[in-house]
Write a structure and sequence with these properties.
It is a single chain. This protein has one domain. 65% of the residues lie in helices and 0% in strands. It is built from four helices and no strands. The chain has helices spanning 5-9, 20-31, 36-47, 53-71. The longest helix has 19 residues, at 53-71. The radius of gyration is 14 Å and the shape is flat. The model has no long low-confidence stretch (mean pLDDT 91).
């Protein structure tokens, strides 16, 4: 049986096609830097992953919204 790699890794239904752990790390770096471009550069240098600053921004906003919703649930 052949399974697509996304499905095998369990990221086929996740947004941005990265693991939850990676999303959290990207969001941390995205919110903790002067700019999303700077976060992109750090991710490239530390993890050797080439990601666009727009994706860093989108993941940071996505995770931020989850945290906001969790903190302000009624």
């Amino acid at each position: 049986m052949i399974i697509p790699l996304d499905e095998y890794l369990g990221i086929d239904k996740l947004p941005f096609k990265v693991s939850i752990r990676a999303m959290i790390e990207i969001a941390f770096l995205g919110q903790n830097q002067q700019s999303f471009k700077r976060a992109k550069e750090i991710i490239k240098r530390v993890y050797n992953i080439d990601i666009s600053y727009v994706t860093v921004m989108n993941i940071t906003k996505f995770i931020g919204q989850i945290v906001f919703d969790y903190n302000y649930m009624e």
